[in-house]
Design brief:
The protein starts with 7 loop residues before the first strand and ends in a 16-residue tail after the last helix. Helices cover 46% and strands 18% of the residues. With 459 residues, the protein is of the alpha+beta class. Strands 6, 7, 8, 9 and 10 form a five-stranded antiparallel β-sheet that branches. The chain has a four-stranded antiparallel β-sheet with strand order 1-2-4-3. A hairpin with a 2-residue loop joins strand 3 and strand 4. Helix 1 crosses helix 3, helix 4 packs across helix 7 and helix 10 packs across helix 13.
């Protein structure tokens, strides 16, 4: 058995969700850690007259000093000491404490310990929302059919001036401040009304041009143009139209329907399938809006007391996520900040409210899962994993390997849990309708009361 620590612990409770511990060790408590530090250091040192790893501790201390051994010991001294103090203080820790070294001789440090957040869901069982009715119009079906028709139509050459929607093959050159900004040859481009790419006002300049015609024009970049180096400046273009093609749309008939996807027997069958798919999409979207609306009401009802440290950790996590996303686009954070004209501190302040909202949502949903006794079994996680793998086509083995880590499985578990919790929240917001006409049996005094979902026991 480990002996009780004789460390001096000063406890400051700043809130129900956080405690600050000032911890100071005495020499006897430090001794086992210093001995372990010596065993690590001696194996790295070559001291004259001794084989590596065989020099006595007194000789090693004379060479490096006790303070150096104490520094070496901090890697395990602080976490192990803090772990024992937390157990002896009977603290329910929610997240990794934040530790600051105060003194080295004797060792003393401060630990900011996030405790279990205090979450009160309020009267969440009285949340009520109505599901939006889903109705697909003929116009919505027609819009999808027209897109399918457009995708099926070939591009064919025409002998007329450029119109919006044509497919152009063109050479484009542009200069800003005498420097070349664009130099593209033989590129395809579809001019559209309102299209701001590659520059605002570019597409309208092409309308009415003829094949093999060249045209020079100047555009002024908007002051808020995303590429700051071009904002507010004049851009001088020279464009040559090499060829013009237009879409030849197929007739809307049964033959067209037979060529869509795996084919349909008739245009009526295609329209029916489009309507069914749109209905499913709209019902899924309505459910998402219902979930979001229910969660928003829950967040208004709930109150959360949590350590500021966990919100800062979430902020740092969001910054790391942003950095990973940038790396996937082959851009570093420094370049990104320069392009958007912000400092890192300004970026963090911008995303701080999002980090706080994301953590608050997590804590509230976590508490609701506890209140409603909602859990996720290993079998449910496996089903989720199998579904993702089976839908990954030729990458199934790579996806399976990626999902095999403990972190990946925990992420899957949290995804399943969130779906189940939001599903339960929707059930609460939309209770089954009570029948207005009751049978004689239900009116009997002996009729049982409606079953209530029991609250899970606190551990």
């Amino acid at each position: 058995q480990r002996r009780a620590l004789r460390v001096k612990v000063t406890r400051q409770s700043t809130s129900p969700s956080e405690v600050i511990l000032n911890i100071q060790l005495d020499s006897e408590d430090e001794e086992p850690f210093i001995a372990r530090s010596y065993r690590r250091v001696v194996n790295r040192m070559q001291i004259p007259g001794f084989r590596r790893g065989k020099a006595p501790r007194s000789i090693v201390e004379r060479f490096v000093g006790r303070t150096a051994l104490a520094h070496e010991a901090l890697d395990f001294l602080i976490p192990e000491t803090l772990d024992r103090v937390l157990k002896e203080e009977n603290l329910e820790v929610f997240a990794q404490p934040d530790v600051e070294l105060l003194e080295i001789e004797p060792v003393s440090f401060k630990a900011v310990v996030p405790l279990e957040p205090v979450v009160d869901l309020g009267d969440y069982r009285h949340i009520r929302l109505e599901r939006e009715p889903v109705e697909i119009t003929d116009a919505q079906v027609d819009e999808v059919i027209e897109r399918l028709r457009y995708e099926a139509g070939p591009w064919e050459p025409v002998s007329r001036p450029v119109q919006f929607g044509d497919l152009l093959r063109q050479d484009v050159g542009a200069t800003i401040d005498g420097k070349r900004a664009v130099d593209d040859r033989g590129i395809d481009f579809i001019p559209q009304s309102g299209n701001t790419m590659p520059f605002p006002g570019f597409s309208p300049q092409l309308e009415g041009m003829a094949e093999q015609q060249e045209k020079a024009f100047t555009l002024t970049m908007p002051p808020d143009y995303p590429q700051r180096q071009y904002a507010g400046k004049e851009c001088h273009f020279r464009v040559k139209v090499l060829s013009i093609k237009e879409k030849k749309l197929p007739e809307l008939d049964d033959e067209f329907a037979k060529g869509v996807g795996e084919g349909y027997d008739s245009l009526a069958d295609l329209r029916a399938q489009v309507r069914q798919r749109l209905t499913q999409q709209e019902e899924a979207a309505a459910l998402r809006r219902l979930e979001e609306g229910s969660l928003e009401q829950l967040l208004q009802t709930a109150s959360v007391q949590a350590s500021g440290l966990i919100f800062e950790r979430e902020l740092n996590l969001m910054r790391e996520e942003r950095e990973r996303a940038l790396r996937s686009q082959r851009m570093d954070m420094e370049t990104y900040l320069r392009l958007v004209g912000k400092t890192e501190e300004e970026l963090l302040e911008e995303i701080r409210p999002q980090a706080r909202e994301r953590m608050t949502r997590y804590l509230v949903l976590r508490k609701l899962a506890q209140e409603e006794g909602i859990e996720v079994t290993p079998e449910e996680v496996q089903v989720e994993m199998d579904t993702l793998v089976s839908g990954s086509g030729d990458s199934q083995e790579a996806v399976r390997r990626a999902l095999s880590s403990e972190n990946a499985r925990e992420s899957l578990r949290m995804g399943v849990l969130n779906r189940k919790v939001l599903g339960r929240l929707v059930e609460i917001a939309q209770p089954p309708a009570v029948e207005t006409v009751k049978s004689e049996e239900s009116l009997s005094p002996a009729a049982p009361a409606p079953a209530q979902i029991p609250s899970p026991e606190r551990t």
